[in-house]
Amino acid sequence: MAAEGISPAPEIFAPGVISATAHEAAPAFTRDGGTVYFQRSSAAQSTILVSHRVSDAWSQPEIAPFSGQWNDMEPAMAPDGKSLVFISDRPVQSGEKPIKSYYQGDEHIGGNVWRIRRTDSGWGLPEHLSAIVNSNTTIFAPSLVADGSLYFMSWNTQANHFQIYRAQYRDGVFAAPVPLPFSDGKNSDVDPAVAPDESFLVFGSGRVPKRSMDLFIVFKQNGAWGEPIWMGDTVNSRGSDAEPRLSPDFENAVFQQRTHHADHVSPQPGAGKDRSHTVAKLG
């Protein structure tokens, strides 16, 4: 799949309903494409909403049953649809304060990965993933693949950049996360969106030839990741492009476009209010 072959030009997704006037991000679709969970943020709060496709339109979003109290963001659906992970600053223990993160010399809203599982009556209660995954409070942008392994981004305090990590899932437990070979900390790499079979990955990066924060795609061949490919100026705007997510058929990327330049895409609520969901066809 060549970057030059990505077409047509991106379109705004569900304008006025899902792509509205706030900071909407990270759409997570059910397998049939009939329901989408996504993040809507203001300067004060980030909440996960849910919308359903009715005929040819999307319903007015409502607060997801597992969200609304804490800063919740970046939902990601498991390929089999049986679980969903998301980022939250909610405390691990009842009665404690929300977690905080620290990077670029400032305090920010914290991020850890939580998981909910689908039951016969709906979603179960949120579960905090183990300390193997949640080893710090700057864990953002989770993405699940077919074998249950987890990709995410986390701040590297030595490199002063975000890097993309993968935690292998086997026999019900996660192994220690390792950075991807092309994400070496020389530039900020953010928001991995991974095909279920791990054949390709779309992510945002500040690497060359970016004009701000741009989208790149990387392919895996013979078990090894190749070199990231810039997705071209058909997809990437003159501003910031990041937070990609894959459609249920894995043929489209839904991502955020920001109209002005930014060298770093913040996962914080209210960051980039001038963004909108856009859709680009892959190949």
> Overall mean pLDDT score?
86
CATH class: Mainly Beta
Uncertain stretches of 5 or more adjacent residues: 1-5, 260-265
Spatial extent as radius of gyration: 17 Å
Describe the structure.
There is one protein chain. The chain is an all-beta fold. The chain has one domain: 6 Propeller (Neuraminidase), CATH 2.120.10.30. 1% of the residues lie in helices and 46% in strands. The protein is built from one helix and 27 strands. The strands form seven sheets. Strands 2, 3, 4, 5 and 6 form a five-stranded antiparallel beta sheet that branches. Strands 7, 8, 11, 12 and 13 form a five-stranded antiparallel beta sheet that branches. The longest helix has 4 residues, at 232-235.
Q: What labels describe this entry?
A:
Neuraminidase
Please give a quick description of this structure.
This protein is mainly β and 283 residues long. It has one helix at 232-235, and strands spanning 11-12, 23-29, 35-41, 46-54, 57-58, 62-63, 72-77, 83-88, 100-103, 106-109, 112-119, 122-123, 127-128, 139-144, 150-156, 161-167, 169-170, 173-174, 178-179, 189-194, 200-205, 214-221, 224-225, 229-230, 240-246, 252-258, 276-281. The longest helix has 4 residues, at 232-235.
